[in-house]
Amino acid sequence: QQQVKQSPQSLIVQKGGISIINCAYENTAFDYFPWYQQFPGKGPALLIAIRPDVSEKKEGRFTISFNKSAKQFSLHIMDSQPGDSATYFCAASIRSGQNFVFGPGTRLSVLP
Amino acid sequence: GAVVSQHPSRVICKSGTSVKIECRSLDFQATTMFWYRQFPKQSLMLMATSNEGSKATYEQGVEKDKFLINHASLTLSTLTVTSAHPEDSSFYICSAQSGGGADTQYFGPGTRLTVL
Fold first, then answer.
1. CB distance B49–A98 less than 8 Å?
2. How high is the pLDDT of residue B2?
3. Which chain A positions have a beta carbon within 8 Å of B107's beta carbon?
4. pLDDT tens digit sequence for B33-75
5. Over the stretch B66-114, which tens digit does the pLDDT of each residue have?
6. Closest CA to B71 of A81, A98, A62, A54
7. Are strands A106-111 and A10-14 parallel, antiparallel or unpaired?
8. What is the DSSP letter of A111?
9. What's chain B's Rg over C-alpha atoms?
10. Contact A32/B at CB under 8 A
11. What is the pLDDT of residue A98?
C-alpha cells in the first residue's frame, strides 16, 4: 500500500516533443505529490508538486495532472529540451506524516 | 531559498575506518532531516529520519549502530558510517524539511562514499 509505481522506466523524446511520465499509488491517505529531477551525481531537486484538491498544476513547461479517483498522477514536460535529460522521480506523502515514498524513477533522454 | 548543503561531496576511505557526512540547511531551520542511500540507476532508499534534539528513527534493515545519525541543531545533521566496508560504498543524500506543516523536502547535493 505504501508503494508508488512509475512508468516508463526510460523515455526517449525528440527536442520540442512532449515527455509524459506516469505514477500510480494505492494509499488514499497520500495527500502531497511532488516530482523531483535528478542529474547524474547530484541530489534531487524539487520540480513541481500538487495536492489532491486540484486536478492540474502548471509551472512553465512542467504540468502535473492528477486523477484522484484513479489514484494516478503524471508529469508532462512540454517543448522538451536536451537540458531536461535527467532522471525524474515522483513521490507521495501524507501531510500529517513526514516520509516520502518515491517511485523507481524514469530516465529521460531528449535528443537534439 | 531552501538550500541544503552536504560535506564532503566525495570521500574515499579504507575499510574499517569511520566517515562523517554533514548536512546543513543554509537558509531555513530544518526540524526534520532525512538520510537516503542511492545505488546506481536506482531510486532513493530512506535510511532514517531525524528530528532536532531527538533520536533518529531508522528504517527496517538499517543498522543504527553502523549508521550513526545526530541532529544536534535546527541546521545541522550528521551521518557517521562506522567501520566502513566496501559494501557501504554508495551515494548518500540528505534532505531537510522545515516543519510547521510544510511538506516539501529539500535535498542536498549528495556525498559519494567509496570504501576501499
1. yes
2. 86
3. 36, 43-46
4. 999 999 988 999 999 999 888 889 999 999 999 999 998 899 9
5. 999 998 899 999 999 999 999 999 999 999 988 766 678 899 999 999 9
6. A98
7. parallel
8. E
9. 13
10. yes
11. 65
